[in-house]
Amino acid sequence: MTITPIIGLEVHIELKTKSKMFCGCDAQHFHAQPNTHTCPVCLGLPGALPVPNKTACEWTIKLGLALGCSINEETFFERKNYFYPDLAKGYQITQLQKPFAINGHLTIDGHDIRINRAHQEEDTGKSIHVGDETLLDFNRSGVPLVEIVSEPDITSAGEAKIYLNKIQQIVRYLGVSDADIEKGSMRCEPTVNLYVDGKYYTPLVEIKNVASLTGVMNAINFEIDRQTKQFESDHVEKNSTNKTTRGWDADKNQTFLQREKEGSADYRYFPEPDIPPIVFTKDQIETIRATLPELPDQKIAKYKSLNLSDFDANLLAEDLVFSSIFDKVLNGSTDPEYAKFITNLLIGPLKTISLDIKKIKPDYFQKLFSRRSDLSSTIIKQLILESYQSDTDPLEIAKAKNLFQVSDTGAIEELAKQVITDNPKAVNDYKKNPLSIGFLVGQLMKVSGGSANPQLAKQLLEKLLS
Amino acid sequence: MSSTIITDDQFQHIAKLSRLEIKPEESYIKDQLAQAAKYVDVLKELDTDKVSPTFQVNHKKNVFRDDIITPSFTQSQAISQAPKTKDGYIVTAATIKK
After folding, report:
1. Tens-place pLDDT, residues A173-225
2. Which residues pair with A21 in a beta bridge?
3. Chain B interface test: which of A57, A98, A134 (most B C-beta within 10 Å)
4. DSSP, res A348
5. A 54-73 residues with CB below 8 A of B?
6. Pairwise CB contact (< 8 Å): A34 & B58
7. CA B73, CA A150: separation in Å to the nearest integer?
8. Which residue of B has its CA nearest to A277?
């Protein structure tokens, strides 16, 4: 059997607005006392009127734009009806026919993953299962969510992981969500089936309750394996009624059948009569587009054009703050040698401390770069760290501490003679084995206080001992 | 009219979505439901050819609120109408079988 996995991902991003989607309750629910951020709207009490949070709508459009989507100028909310205790109203306010954003894509290693839509909706309450009871907390009910739905273009667990990392990175660049999978502000539901022997499709399975990136990968791999065996034994193909929902059990590392999925028609979607339609004009959408930062892919392309390696470019673009520091230090330079020089400092010594972009002085880097042939690489690393911490010109520090490498042949030769006199045993060793010169060079560096140019030191020692 | 006849399967399905348990002796409800649905056919008598479809009657748009936190219920207010509560939570029958 040849198996091609077909994977689509639904990703929910909880927006970090101050207030909820349709009411003014505090949207921050993590670790809050249960049922302390609720009101008639988010408890679904009769007669309550939902009013959309403008910031949340703008952020959804912004995220849609960052995902390469077209934006629907006219949108509206709809009711999705279903029965579950964490949904007090009996319906979720969401979007179906006219989502804010449609038809985007993300590129992973040259492979396009199409994005069907990014729509706005509200989160449900939280259920805690204790024994034969379920405890309900409605603090999360009504918190704004964006649901990003991919087309089933993902073909492996590894690709799913890269896709999720990318969405997380973009969302964090935009500053619209923490997108923390462990804390639940980013959630993922993979839908998996298989294309077998280029002829058959296995029934669709939607996986729920995956609470980590590793969990997503393990769940997808488990499903691929399970469906392969299932198809080998029963040969059941996908049809319009046999989609199932399976929960992920992270302890047992397996999926289990949860419930029969209600068919799409059972949600009885209809336009939300309590919320008038929403119109964003082309100008308003362009104004939002203008607030987009340079995105990770653009940053990576820019860094690679400076001859930086894939590894360095990705590392620098990892988060917006770090890449902004790099951009500030780069200061528009297109010199690959300078780019590599500052990369080594930023991902080296400066990576070990937390940096404040306001305190970064590009000219400190430039000064060190201009004198790099007179300073050892170790000294340069020390100097950049010290100059940042004390806000002092690194060349001043170097001068005060006498750290410039002495390239004055006469001065080094004097020191070399002294080293030869002081280390007769090492000199003897060198005469038997020229490779042992390192010890004498080390001694010379030591007596020079690290200031001798090591190449010159080696040359002079060799000359004196020949 | 044939369009409003409800099959047994549809009836069972609607009952399930409504969380209603219909006993066999209550099957006459199906005919009552069919009658009620039939009533909607009255609307078909209207000539709507020149009326564009709408789901909105007040012609408003862009009714937003700014992202500002306003006071919420206290915990005791929030859970006061629940039949059963525990430590500030609302308690319901288990939704997941373990």
Report:
1. 999 999 999 889 999 999 999 999 999 999 999 999 898 999 999 999 999 99
2. none
3. A134
4. T
5. 54-57
6. no
7. 38
8. B61
Whether the CB-CB separation of A242 and A236 falls below 8 Å is answered with yes
Q: Inter-chain contact B64–A23, Cβ cutoff 8 Å? A: no
What is the band of B70 on the pLDDT scale with cuts at 50, 70, 90? very high
Tokens found for residue A4: 């091609």
Q: Which two tokens stand for residue A205?
A: 């399975």
For chain B, give every domain's residue range.
Answer: 2-45
pTM of the model: 0.84
Give residue B20's pLDDT.
87
Lowest average pLDDT, out of A344-358, A407-421, A433-447, goes to A407-421
A136 contacts B87? CB cut-off 8 A: no
**B25 contact partners, CB below 8 Å, separation of at least 6:** none
What is the ipTM for the molecules in this complex? 0.86
Q: What is the distance in angstroms between the Cα of B35 and the nearest Cα belonging to chain A? A: 21
The residues spanned by each domain of chain A are: 3-286, 294-400, 409-465
Q: What is the pLDDT of residues A227-253, one digit of tens each?
A: 999 999 999 999 988 888 999 999 999
Angle formed by the axes of helices A362-370 and A336-346, nearest 10°: 120
CB contacts, 8 Å: A17 with chain B: 67
The CA distance from B42 to the nearest CA of chain A, in Å, is 21
Residue A347 has pLDDT above 80, yes or no: yes
Among A126, A133, A267, which would you mutate to test the B interface (most chain B Cβ atoms within 10 Å of its Cβ)? A133
**Rounded distance, CA A61 to CA A58, Å?**
5
Q: For residue A302, give the amino acid letter.
A: K
Residue A260 has pLDDT above 80, yes or no: no
Question: What is the gyration radius of the CA atoms in chain B, in angstroms?
Answer: 23
pLDDT band at B2 (very low <50, low <70, confident <90, very high): very low
Q: How many CA atoms lie within 13 A of A441 on its CB side?
A: 15
Which CATH number is A409-465's, of 3.40.30.10, 3.40.50.620, 3.40.50.300, 1.10.10.410? 1.10.10.410
Cα–Cα distance, A252 to B97 (Å, whole number): 16
DSSP states along A281-332: -HHHHHHHHTTPPPPHHHHHHHHHHTT--HHHHHHHHSSHHHHHHHHHHHTT
Contact B64 A36 (CB under 8 A): no
- Non-local (6+) Cβ contacts of A281 within 8 A are A73
Tens digit of pLDDT for each residue in A360-394? 999 999 998 988 888 888 889 988 989 999 999 99
| Residue A338 pLDDT exceeds 50 | yes
Could you tell me the two tokens for B25? 């002796």
Closest CA in chain A for residue B75 = A36
B contact residues 49-78, partner A, Cβ 8 Å cutoff: 55-56, 58, 60-75, 78
Give whole-number Cα distances, A41 to A23, A239, A308, A312, A448, in Å.
6, 39, 52, 49, 76
Closest-CA distance of chain B to residue A98, Å? 14
Report CB contact under 8 Å: B95, A129. yes
